[in-house]
Amino acid sequence: MPYHSNANPSQQPLRQQAEGMFQNRQVSPQTFDVSQTDLQRLVHALHVHQVELELQNQALRRSQQESLAARDQDTALYDFAPVGYLTLDDSDGILEVNLTAATMLDVVRSKLLGMRFTRFVSRDDQDTFYLHRRRVMEHQVNDICDMEIQRADGTAFWGRLEALAVDHTAGHPVEGYRMILSDMTALKQADHNRQQAERLISLGTFAAGLAHELNNPLYAISSTAEYAREALAKKTYTQADIDDCLVDILSDAGRCTQLVKNVLNFARQGSREKVLLDLHPLIQSSSDLTQRYDQEHGVLICLRFAHAPPRIVANRVDIRTRTRQCHSQCCRGQLNYSK
């Protein structure tokens, strides 16, 4: 008599397969020559075993559901993370990518798979990315670098790449590396704004010092010219007096001219060429521009130069700018240039 199972309908194909395999076996007739008592024991054992299997099946289903829920949660955390996650092969082909990275690059995720990541690296940063990948692949180390990333629509953002080679001992089938992509544009903009604020502070201190430096010769010119005008009106002058007045006026005017020339040289942002420079004259000229203003406000600047001036390769405008920023930051204390 065939046995009618109470198993779940989803298990019927497995039951039918088992019955088919049993019928194909060569079973000896003596196998069924058992007593009624033994048969009842066998049926009881089979029922108990069936219950055990059903309990195991329920436990497996619960475990499967928990695994699926954990997988869905991990997938959501992976796809909607605040940073981009990518897995690249040894040729920079994209093997895996989350939704955040796809959004950053402005490409549908399914189309990103197989594309080379280098197509999103700006032309100026191709060498930087090559060296970054080489360090990761050859030395098996975690490496971080910043570079400009080009989106599919042509716009760009500052990205930070954090990469680590895939551990082959863990059984990963593909040689490559994993990478975290972060958008650093806001941080770069904040840093730029901070530098701009520092420049404005430096410019304010510089302008105040320049105003004092210009006021002194201008006041001298005005006073000398007024004295000469009154002397000419009263006719109480000699030619030597007029000559002295003109010499003083020309001297103070030359001083103003030199100050303006120094300002123009300081503010000129044309050439970015780097040349061999002596630091002493640059520091001295920056100090001269605001020396009187510093003294009036109780700022003491001590310049102690070595006999052999230090020489560096740099841009002249950049060095002047840095010197003025140092002065601005220390304008309420003592600034000591010692070399």
Architecture overview:
With 339 residues, the protein is of the alpha+beta class. It has 2 domains: 82-183, PAS domain (Beta-Lactamase), CATH 3.30.450.20; 189-338, no CATH class. Helix content is 56%, strand content 16%. It is built from 10 helices and 9 strands. It has helices spanning 12-23, 36-79, 99-105, 109-112, 126-139, 185-234, 239-267, 279-289, 291-296, 316-329, and strands spanning 84-89, 94-97, 143-150, 156-165, 176-183, 275-278, 300-304, 311-314, 334-338. It has a 5-stranded antiparallel beta sheet with strand order 2-1-5-4-3, sandwiched between helices. Strands 6-8 form a two-stranded antiparallel ribbon. A hairpin with a 5-residue loop joins strand 3 (143-150) and strand 4. Helix 8 (279-289) crosses helix 10. 13% of the residues are buried.
Q: How are the SSEs ordered, and which strands pair?
A:
Elements: H1 12-23, H2 36-79, E1 84-89, E2 94-97, H3 99-105, H4 109-112, H5 126-139, E3 143-150, E4 156-165, E5 176-183, H6 185-234, H7 239-267, E6 275-278, H8 279-289, H9 291-296, E7 300-304, E8 311-314, H10 316-329, E9 334-338
Parallel strand pairs: 7-9
Antiparallel strand pairs: 1-2, 1-5, 3-4, 4-5, 6-8
Helix pairs in contact: 6-7, 6-10, 8-10
